[in-house]
Amino acid sequence: MLDFGIADRRALICASSRGLGYGCAEALARAGVTLILNARDEAQLTIAADTLRRKTGAQIEIVAADICTEEGRSLVLKKAGRIDILVNNAGGPPKGHFKDWSREDWIKAIDQNMLTAIEMIKVVIDPMVMNKFGRIVNITSGAVKSPIQELGLSNGARSGLTGFVAGIAREYAQYNVTINNLLPGQFNTARIDQLIASRAKQENLPPQKIRSILERENPAKRLGEIAEFGFACAWLCSAHSGYLVGQNILMDGGKFNSAI
Q1: Which of 25, 132, 234, 240 is deepest in the core (most CB within 10 A)?
Q2: How far is CA 125 from the centre of its chain?
């Protein structure tokens, strides 16, 4: 029996009502962790929590709030109490062309995909140090390693977070507090469905044709599943991952071709 050594720990998972955040929540619930789920849509969040309780028997609290605002973060952190595990996650900014993006577009993207995670880390890091245990996982994007031209807002903001994490992660490793990043490629989520639909419209092709192309282009010949992403997140949060510090774990089926 696989024991991640984190039963009865408390985990806050941001943007966890669906998609990759939900996958992380389910895996942590199966590891015996008490969950605090966050998302903006209270109805969807309630459905996610009820589903996880039925499937895993985990203790789950929910906080409906926009984690990308100061007010939302304050509400979530007040409700969460002690946090042993933090999974930072937020939706990505829209695609487009850099010539069309205003300063306001950039500020919004940086707030969403860089500064929010940094603000959350600032709040939880000292209590983790005092408790001699902490796991922080930031869900970023495979675009950090292999930028996607039309997703420049995401490329820039998430790369900024990556640089920040690299600069502070080593400082806290001595206290058994680790900070690492999980970089998803193409997974079967609502986000990929939107991107497929958009590309299908542009190329005047059926969405299933675009999906088949994406699967064929991937060395794994498929897209990723939420559950396998969640398992990777749970391992990064486990008691056995304390020697993994400041790393960027790419999960993309091998699509990014690199020796290191």
Answers
A1: 25
A2: 18
For 10, the enclosing helix (H) or strand (E) is strand 10-13
Kindly calculate the radius of gyration of the chain based on its CA atoms and give it in whole angstroms.
Answer: 18
E-assigned strand segments in 118-204: 134-139, 177-184
* CB neighbour class for 122 (10 Å; exposed up to 12, middle 13-18, buried from 19): exposed
pLDDT-above-70 percentage for the chain: 100
The candidate with the shortest Cα–Cα distance to 140, out of 102, 174, 112, 105, is: 112
Q: Which residues contact 183 (CB under 8 A, 6 or more apart)?
A: 140, 141, 142, 144, 145, 248, 249, 250, 251, 252
Give the domain ranges of the chain. Answer: 10-185+226-251, 188-223
Can you tell me whether residue 256 is helix, strand or coil?
Answer: coil
Mean model confidence pLDDT for the chain: 95
| 10-185+226-251 topology per CATH | Rossmann fold (3.40.50)
The residues, ordered by sequence, that sit 6+ positions from 193 with a Cβ below 8 Å of its Cβ are 207
pLDDT tens digit string along 178-189? Answer: 999 999 999 999
- What does the pLDDT look like over 86-109, one tens digit per residue? 999 998 888 888 888 899 999 999
pLDDT at residue 1 greater than cutoff 80 = no
